[in-house]
Amino acid sequence: MRACDVGDVIMGRLVAAYGAPQAVKAIRSRTLPPEFVAQEAQQERPPDLTTRLHTWYARLAAANPAADLAAGTGSGARLIIPGDPEWPTQLDQLGPSRPLALWVHGDADLRFSCLKSVSIVGARAATPYGSHTAAEFGVGLGESGWTVVSGGAFGVDGAAHRGALAAGAPTVAVLACGVDVCYPSNHETLFAAIKEQGVVISECPPGVHPTRARFLIRNRLIAALSRGTVVVEAAIRSGALNTATHALSLNRHLGAVPGPITSSMSAGCHKLLRERKAVCITSPEDMIDLVGVMGEDLAPHVRAPAVPRDRLNEPTKKVLDAVPARGGAGPASIAVAAGVTLDAALSALGGLAAAGYIERTPRGWRLRKQTTSYRKAPDTLALQPPPTPEPDPTELPPPPDDLLYAGYEG
Amino acid sequence: MRACDVGDVIMGRLVAAYGAPQAVKAIRSRTLPPEFVAQEAQQERPPDLTTRLHTWYARLAAANPAADLAAGTGSGARLIIPGDPEWPTQLDQLGPSRPLALWVHGDADLRFSCLKSVSIVGARAATPYGSHTAAEFGVGLGESGWTVVSGGAFGVDGAAHRGALAAGAPTVAVLACGVDVCYPSNHETLFAAIKEQGVVISECPPGVHPTRARFLIRNRLIAALSRGTVVVEAAIRSGALNTATHALSLNRHLGAVPGPITSSMSAGCHKLLRERKAVCITSPEDMIDLVGVMGEDLAPHVRAPAVPRDRLNEPTKKVLDAVPARGGAGPASIAVAAGVTLDAALSALGGLAAAGYIERTPRGWRLRKQTTSYRKAPDTLALQPPPTPEPDPTELPPPPDDLLYAGYEG
């Protein structure tokens, strides 16, 4: 693992073809198998194998695998390789960039935890809106039995992990440094909590510190481990968009949470939506709907609230619309205005009056005041208006002049 | 116009087939042409023509076209019918629901104004975010030579009209009442301003007050007049979504502005995005990009800011990443860490030092403090770091621990 940097696809192909022990032997002897050299020469962009071998040799000479193993196991972590029972086989889709091995630290089983998992990624410099959303998603997914995979960073990552922990669910933090290195250092408590309820994993050997390149290469693991990735907040230039690209190239689901267009921290999400690369995600249920198995994890559809008026039949609605709010009108003029026959108007007026929608005045029929604002329909009979006008907390009050058409006219 | 309610498609077909004078004559005589009756009977849902004719007759008997014309022209409006030079021919796409005529009040030419136009629709009970966005879109579209079409209501509509007026651009308000009726009454000043710079139009005769049905039917005109519609804010149950449906069925472009997922006033927009019915719109330029002619109205693409580091070549970047931030390291260990040869490392270190990225200390090479945060690249040479660290107002400051990887790791 020390011989090459993480994500070295040439090393990946070498190990895939000959196994790790043979690969080490070849590097030690500074001679690559001739078939491998011939094969690599046929790549679209043939790599400079001599330089690469030289680098591997120098790194291997400086490496101390026994010390790494001792440091890793000493810190409480375990090393897993492809074929182990805990190895998440979905990583095999990474092809030659599949990690050679993974350090895993924590009480949960990595493979089992990732069977039903969603990756939550986003800006480190998240806004309060982004952190709030990430935490809500962490809780919502955790409570529905989904594991949250993220990068353990500040901002969106940390909030998502904390949300999942709060829901009592396992969560997986994929680090760009050794699992015994605490980066960012303020997250020591968070990582300790994750190790108790989930796992902290890394493909980097113990003691390795993060570099820019390791963050970018780490992101492919976050995308590959889960069924889908949701970007909560991301600036136009953001590592979260890099993870999103990995998710798309692995044919995983991709979601993006919208935000105010005035926030530069949502610009990356809006770019994904605008280019139709990501699905618009407004709740954990939306995400489960996206990645879940059909018929098993379906989210309830957002539906328009029903209002009592919906239950009136068409002619009655027309008559109700034709009754004036002020003054009054006779049945004949209402029938003409509504475009129905006089008989139909008279019958509808009777029903509407009995239900309290309208009232008879000396000047004719007019609307009753309390029925001009519409609220959610109670599950009762059609012609039963709500007895008292109580404010609906889910709706902003419409301007008073418009009460009559609340919720209809845009 | 008084004989039927607005949007009566049977009347539309009658007038289209026989002309308005013949239609009036037929209704007066209470006998529809036999071919028309036979044709209507073949409709998927054959209408009850007897009742309909009866209603038309009663309405026609109560109508006073001369008084309507006098009232309309007296208020300063003009009546246009299909075929007139000012008639916007894009309304013909409405088929039988095309309005029989339009009352137009204002100094602008309706057809000319709508040639390059965008409809901005949204909630009356808009949040400050929605009103702000609508106004910004009104200004942005107006300044780019686009006419804003909207419904003259409170909230999004009003803000969009005001934005267009502020940009000195024409704007079209499509009312659901007579053009001489001021609804909402608080918008008297706004409508007066629109009449000076644009037009207020309606298919309703003078004096007619708005009803729920007229609002919904009016919406098809807002969608049909422009090249595309953008929904700024909309609850799940909203007239703006009705306009959006009309825009889609007319094959017009549809955009939706995202907002916080915590705002119920953006839920309708998010639904359109989630169902991939609308394109995500974050600026007036996005909307122009959507509705504009290719090569003529292209919006600039949102691009990630360039940082000085982008201009370094790959081996130099690797070496820079391998240089420690604290302490120091010799060229040999940096070469091993970066995975490059010693010669390449020495050459890169020299260049990086000359450019001020790194410095030599008694303990070896290390990063220079002021180059660890990256800002927008000046348009100069690659290896020239910005001289003084000045804060970038477009980026939130990353947490201090993370300065090294600002903008990369998510």
UniProtKB/TrEMBL annotation, chains A, B:
UniProt-listed Pfam families: DNA_processg_A
Signal sequence annotation: none
Bias type Pro residues, positions: 384-401
Region (Disordered): 368-410
TM spans (from-to): none
InterPro entries: DprA, DrpA_SLOG
Domain Smf/DprA SLOG: 79-290
Stored PANTHER family: PROTEIN SMF
Family, per entry: Belongs to the DprA/Smf family.
Protein name: DNA-processing protein DprA
Organism: Nonomuraea salmonea
Gene responsible for this protein: dprA
